[in-house]
Amino acid sequence: MAKRQVNIALIGYQFMGKAHSNAYRQVGRFFDLEVEPVMKVLVGRNEEKVKAAAEKFGWQEYATDWEEVIARDDIDIIDIGTPNDTHALITQKAIAAGKHVLCEKPLAISVEDAKASYELAKGKGLVNGICHNYRFAPAIALAQQMVSSGKLGAIRHFRGVYLQDWIVDPSVPLVWRLDKNIAGSGSHGDLNAHLIDTARFVMGTEFSEVCGLSETFIKKRPLLADTDGGLTGFKSSDEMGEVTVDDVTSFLARFENGATGTFEATRLAPGRKNYNRWEINGEKGSIVYNQERMNELEVYVTDDPAGLQGFHLVQATEAEMPYMSAYWPVAHIIGYEHTFINMVKDFLEAVGKGTEFTPSFYDGYRNQIVLDAVEKSANAKAWASATL
Ligand code: SOE
Fold this sequence. Notes:
This protein has two domains: 4-129, NAD(P)-binding Rossmann-like Domain (Rossmann fold), CATH 3.40.50.720; 140-293 and 295-334 and 367-380, 2-Layer Sandwich (Dihydrodipicolinate Reductase, domain 2). It is built from ten helices and 17 strands. It has helices spanning 15-30, 47-57, 66-70, 87-96, 111-121, 138-148, 180-183, 187-203, 336-353, 361-380; strands spanning 4-11, 35-43, 61-63, 77-80, 100-104, 128-131, 155-163, 207-215, 220-224, 236-242, 248-255, 260-266, 275-282, 285-290, 296-301, 312-315, 384-385. Helix 5 (111-121) packs antiparallel against helix 10 (361-380).
């Protein structure tokens, strides 16, 4: 029997547009899906660039007006991969038009807007998702299974750093990720948001309070000569402008399950490229994950016999492990793009079955509450509540 076709419109064609396009193109080649995803239309502001991207990525059509695309009856899913300040508006219009929505992180750049998107989608029977793609790395999904099965006992510590260095050179211009009005915040929203999601996901608990510290070291940078949403190939002008976001944000946290946490995000850590590394310590063991070695987990369990105690490396590529049976034999490793393929697989499954997808808008809303509480705490130099 022919599968039900679901037509997708993707808004945004740069870094995330490329990652999501690749995911839709590949997903049905690895997973047996309930539905047949159709890459219907790619949307972007610049006609020449979006046309070229649509051809390159394999979309049937391209368009420049996202509101017109949302209004189309033949579109089932709106996928949003645009700069952060546009997420809430596009999400809310898409939900109001009865579309399933998969939105890149963040759900919005304020708690109020994130809450509005969450509340609008609630009870509508539409699948809503926020793209925290690292949840879909098999090693992280495996860590979550180990913790929820009780293998580590009660968790006491989450210790996460997310370090990059792509703006350490002060001549890197003011791309949108350095503009508070567009990005919402700097390293904090860009990188701590991922750690916050991972902590909630892996430990299955919520943040209760946080104490933050932020700094902007490079206060002025050249303006962009050409608009570009990517992470490389920028053109600078001779004029300088103000950096309005944090370069580094660190914070302490308490969780509802009694655990404590430390977090640090910066894009000024020379030599660290995409060093999303965290470890958790429980009563009976520890787990370490590093995105730069995403196919592995380091695991220590206290009940190993004396003489054999120590961290050991688990290949998170065995067929029994989350998502892996769709790919290659053990240790034939996967990469960054597979986190997106796994994510759209779960999303399409939810659309096909009429079930819920996680992380959902609720998770995006909770994430925004924590980000916001850290900023408030850093400004007030005091602890802040991170609960609903
Ligand atoms: C840039 O810092 C960036 O692409 C983030 O925007 C992503 O969310 C992160 O996954 C990788 O780094």
